[in-house]
Amino acid sequence: MSSPADQGWTWAGPQPSTSHRPRTAPTNGTRPTSVDNSKTRTGGGFNPSIGLAVNKTVVNGKAGGSTAPGGGAGPGTGGKIPGSDFMSNEDIRAFCEYLRKESRNRATERAMDADHLEAVLRTIPDGGGSLHGARARARRVSRWLKKVAAAEKNIQKYSAMIYGTFEREYESDLRKVGKGRTQQPRPTKFGWR
Question: Chain-centre distance of CA 157, in angstroms?
Answer without folding.
Answer: 18
